[in-house]
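can u do me a favor
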């Protein structure tokens, strides 16, 4: 495959990622335009709505201004003033990352990896800029630079991960000697990084590596438990969710569109559930609180999934705090053998117990930072008035998580026979 074909292939991969992402909201909205509105409205309205949803899904802000009729229907204080919607429907960002990883894997198998990667990034960036420019309107105006930059950054993350994983796999395959030979010069930089890493003392490398591993494992376990808990809450409160669907009177196509929108926010809801388990909980509007010890809510938008929210005081809600504690303890137990192997190579006078404690602290710090970042990207402004504050407090979530991961991780690391250095 020569350079022109590689460029065409990479550009088509980027186009496919953009097309799938923006097609998810556009297809149901087009059906609404055709069947529910009888082709009476301008189709570009639905295109702009799909573009705004896609931009929001990647973290871009959109400045909205409601018309007078909608202001009367909404009834929120300050609904007539322009307001910013900044909450990201993370399902779109997650989809872009996964599709970009697939594109990166395919581009990494071509002879011109760097060239193809650059073409894919430039193509995606130009498409994102075109989408933003085509969606500008006096009632809905997305941020020009955020709409072009943020989706491209999300795409770049997945693309680089896909390329790196595939190139690493190809370099480890003896049968692919030709492929590794073509990219041998490009592998020198990772080789330098690896040599710098190996020059560090064994104990320091072990503590840092296992701290990262344990912190990521603790967050992964907590997020998995949050997904299970969210599913149970929806099942238990299924009647309330259905009642909200019926109260909307959106019809079949409208119900499908609402369901797809809620699925786009599913990663946000899982992260909010994790914040609930950690302790600080989350807010759906200024002055509201949804936490393990009780729920205090004001007027809510008619979103069916909100029917699964717990109501009132919870007698045993504090038991949810055990989930991050158990996750931190298991993370400490899981990385203990690897830390002990590193301790055996301790220089004389080094403290084995100190290395274990520092590893537990690292697990807490890494877990707190990761969960705090997830809480930060999952929240934002969702509407006018009190809806300008939706989601968890990222700082509180990070601090609580660091404590609830770190202390149990230290206990898990210290459990068992005390280690002895050589």
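np, heres the sequence
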């Amino acid at each position: 495959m020569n350079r022109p074909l590689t460029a065409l292939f990479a550009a088509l991969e980027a186009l496919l990622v953009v097309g799938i992402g923006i097609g998810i909201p556009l297809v149901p909205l087009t059906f609404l335009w055709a069947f529910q509105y009888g082709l009476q409205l301008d189709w570009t309205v639905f295109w702009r709505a799909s573009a705004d949803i896609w931009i929001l899904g990647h973290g871009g802000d959109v400045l909205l201004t409601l018309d007078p009729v909608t202001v009367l229907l909404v009834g929120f204080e300050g609904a007539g003033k322009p307001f910013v919607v900044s909450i990201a429907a993370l399902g779109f960002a997650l989809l872009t990352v996964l599709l970009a990883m697939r594109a990166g894997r395919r581009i990494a198998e071509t002879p011109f990896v760097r060239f193809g990667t650059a073409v894919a990034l430039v193509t995606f960036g130009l498409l994102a800029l075109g989408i933003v420019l085509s969606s500008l309107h006096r009632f809905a105006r997305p941020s020009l630079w955020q709409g072009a930059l943020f989706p491209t950054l999300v795409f770049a993350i997945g693309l680089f991960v896909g390329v790196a994983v595939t190139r690493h796999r190809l370099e480890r395959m003896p049968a692919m000697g030709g492929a590794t030979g073509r990219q041998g010069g490009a592998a020198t930089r990772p080789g330098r990084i690896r040599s710098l890493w190996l020059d560090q003392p064994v104990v320091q490398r072990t503590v840092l590596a296992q701290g990262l591993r344990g912190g990521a494992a603790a967050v992964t376990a907590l997020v998995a438990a949050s997904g299970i808990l969210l599913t149970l809450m929806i099942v238990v409160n299924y009647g309330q969710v259905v009642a909200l669907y019926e109260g909307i009177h959106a019809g079949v196509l409208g119900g499908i569109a609402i369901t797809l929108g809620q699925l786009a926010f599913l990663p946000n809801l899982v992260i909010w559930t994790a914040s609930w388990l950690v302790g600080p909980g989350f807010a759906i509007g200024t002055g509201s609180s949804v936490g393990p010890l009780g729920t205090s809510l004001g007027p809510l938008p008619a979103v069916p999934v909100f029917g699964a929210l717990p109501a009132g005081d919870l007698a045993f809600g504090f038991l949810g705090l055990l989930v991050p504690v158990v996750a931190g303890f298991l993370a400490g137990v899981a990385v203990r053998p690897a830390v002990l192997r590193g301790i055996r190579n301790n220089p004389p006078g080094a403290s084995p117990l100190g290395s274990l404690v520092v590893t537990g602290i690292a697990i807490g710090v890494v877990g707190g930072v990761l969960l705090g970042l997830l809480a930060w990207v999952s929240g934002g402004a969702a509407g006018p008035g009190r809806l300008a504050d939706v989601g968890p407090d990222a700082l509180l979530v990070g601090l609580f998580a660091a404590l609830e991961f770190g202390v149990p991780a230290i206990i898990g690391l210290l459990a068992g026979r005390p280690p002895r250095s050589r």
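The first helix runs from residue 3 to 36. hope that helps!!
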